[in-house]
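Checked the freezer inventory, then went back to the computational side. Two predictions to log before the end of the day. The first one is the construct we discussed on Monday; recording sequence and tokens without edits.
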Amino acid sequence: MKNDSEIFKDIIQWDIKTWSKALPFWQKNVSIKSEMRALAIGEREGGISLWLALQGVNVVCTDYNDFPKETTQLHKRHNVSDRIYYENGVDLADLSKFPSSSFDLVVFKSVLGALSKKEKQQKAFEEMKRVLKPGGAILFAENSKGSKLHSVFRKKFIKWNSYWRYLDYKRDQDLFVGFSSVKLTTSGFTAVFGRTEKQRSVLAAFDRIINPILPPSFNYVVFGVLTK
């Protein structure tokens, strides 16, 4: 897949420099092959479904709400509509409409926190594991609790902060129990404070310098590959 900035923009959509680091991390830790079947969750804007379809993966693109027309238009523009099937009304913690062992991959980005409670997040991982084929993998990029500075910033500026449950890199490792392999990494410290995409891009360059000396738990995004 061509790694140009326009494709990254269509796939990641916001805070691109930081969140796009998920893609090479996923590709490093799982072999993504043409004709695989993937379940993409929380895909209102369709970016991760696009990324998968560009690699020849057949995608069930899902969201809890109806899809806006821009989502299907995005996929048509990249000529991948024939690989994508749309399904709304899908709750991450209740995948009962999908049979067990039916997907090679389950993928989501910035969705888990909306479940609000750790118990529901645990149920979500159990459901995702259930629908995976043996040897299949969950690929995720999710908002992490980060530092105290991030908590203060979110409380003041993020409108959904009151109900969003951020993953705690140190205390939430038990969510991944039962998988044969767990690969995690984190990224991003200052970029989230940018108010425009240009500002976030500049700050992400600074993050690349300081990231090696920061504890993983200080970063505000966590990437994961969980293999069944």
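The second is the one RB wanted added to the comparison set:
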Amino acid sequence: MARKVRIATFNCENLFTRHRFGSGIRESDITKEGWDLNQNGFVRLKPRAKELTAKTINALKADIVALQEVEGIAALKSFRNKFLGGFKAYPHVALIGGNDPRLIDVAVLSKYPIIHARSYQHVKETPQKRNFIFSRDCLEVDISIYGKPVTLYVNHFKSMNGRRAATRSRRLLQAKTVRRIVTARFGEQAGNHPFIILGDLNDYPRTDEQGASAITLLANWDQVENVVARLPEDERWTHYYAHKDSYSQLDYMLVSNSLCSRIKRVHIERRGLPGRARRFIGARLKGVGKSNPKASDHCPLVVELEI
């Protein structure tokens, strides 16, 4: 008998427990040298925003949540314990510290057992080059759902800060590498196996004055389906950019062909967006402000599958 499972992805925007430093302290020095806690006074860091992030996650009713922009395993467990129902709600956690010097990592919370986790943060374009391919990581996680394994590839690609065209080559390399990783494990007909590539891929599907999308070879790969495309075209956006009042799809769930027929619902949860995101006319979560506080500038995406 088929059973339903809900899988989500969410860039929760700076889920930190770090300390706020005084004036004159440069972030670049902190990440290089560390810090002495005795020299700083502390305040709670965005407590209302954390509460709204939690309300948004709880609204998903997800069994498995892939997260982006999490400071570390301690921050994730603390957040889970305080806001999401603790160990009983999500007993299984995966996070491996990645490449971002700001300590924004990718992670997984799961009601089902995580039976395997692997990081690809160490992968380089060539052995001779020093730069890592992934800005954060590509976190591979196998989860046993009613005894059946499903593999997640959780990603957070290079951002478009510094212009989309100028940063395109890095995202293109990341997209190619994810596809290569999946193919290396499952073969050329990878879609016959149960997996989902998900997360904040930091590019939208359309071509504009900045050029073509960097992730087309992944989002349009014939072994997966970009399930957001099942929604009406004007409902496919997952991110609000206040500077230009623009709305785009940056967050993806690329579901393998073997799982696509099992999808019963695709939903984008927007109630945590700030009030100034005027394209969303629905009710907000209690406590959301015009600009701040907010759950995130991204909207979580959730799919319901029959396994």
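For RB: The chain has one domain: 4-306. Helices lie at 27-33, 47-60, 73-83, 86-89, 164-186, 216-219, 257-260. Let me know if you want it refolded.
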